Amino acid sequence: MTANLRIGIGYDVHRLITGRPLILGGISIPFEQGLDGHSDADCLTHAIADSILGAAGLSDIGHFFPDTDPRYKGIDSQEILKQACAEAARMGFSISNIDTVIIAEAPKMGPHLAAMKKRLAATLDMQVSAIGIKATTHEKLDDLGKGLGIAAQAVCLLQAVS
Ligand SMILES: [Zn+2]
């Protein structure tokens, strides 16, 4: 007997640097710094993609999109997320819901959460109500608390499509 529900977890962090746009949840957020990385460095979207791949029992996004591959330089992470969803579908799963946390000292995420949900829901072809995004600070503790980077955690639930 195979279980028809599968849970997955994802975590990602990227360094904040000047001279890059800040992209989170597939939207551009006005800020004096942006996340550094091979792709657009959208740590929220990467965490979600990893949670989906993990729940499906697949390798992480580094396997599907190696940061040594020039084809993926500057890639829109919504493409990564779309592929993670397609890989899960290939394994016979659909996504029931996703919940996430952004850990950022700045900027304030509250005004942008609705737009992020809308963009992610469109990428995943899901209801906005099946995607949770919360934001918290790191209470000035450690490097995240000094604003040196932004991290994100995600969980997702997959359901076997019968
Ligand atoms: Zn990443």
Descriptive labels:
60s Ribosomal Protein L30, Chain: A, two-stranded antiparallel ribbon, 7 strands, globular
End-to-end distance, in Å?
A: 13 Å
Outline the low-pLDDT stretches: none
Ligand species: zinc ion
Instruction: Using the coordinates shown, work out and report the CATH topology.
Output: 60s Ribosomal Protein L30, Chain: A
Number of helices: 5
Known CATH architecture: 2-Layer Sandwich
CATH evolutionary superfamily? 2-C-methyl-D-erythritol 2,4-cyclodiphosphate synthase
| Sheet/helix structural class | alpha+beta
**CATH classification class:** Alpha Beta
Average pLDDT rating:
96
Major sheet description: 5 strands, mixed
Number of distinct beta strands: 7
- Please report which band the strand proportion falls in: under 5%, 5-15%, 15-25%, 25-35%, 35-45% or over 45%: 25-35%
Q: Give the C-alpha Rg.
A: 15 Å
Strand order of the largest sheet: 4-1-7-5-6
Helix content: 25-40%
The SSE order reads EEEEHHHEHEHE
Count of all domains: 1
Shape: globular
Write a structural description.
This protein has 162 residues and is an alpha+beta fold. The protein has a single domain (5-160), classed as 60s Ribosomal Protein L30, Chain: A. Helix content is 29%, strand content 31%. The protein has helices at residues 43-55, 61-64, 77-90, 113-124, 142-145, and strands at residues 5-17, 22-24, 27-29, 34-35, 93-103, 131-136, 149-160. It has a 5-stranded mixed sheet. Strand 2 and strand 3 form a beta hairpin. Helix 1 runs parallel beside helix 3 (77-90). It is globular and about 45 Å long. Residues 12, 14, 37, 43, 46 line the site of zinc ion. Zinc ion is lined by residues 12, 14, 37, 43, 46.
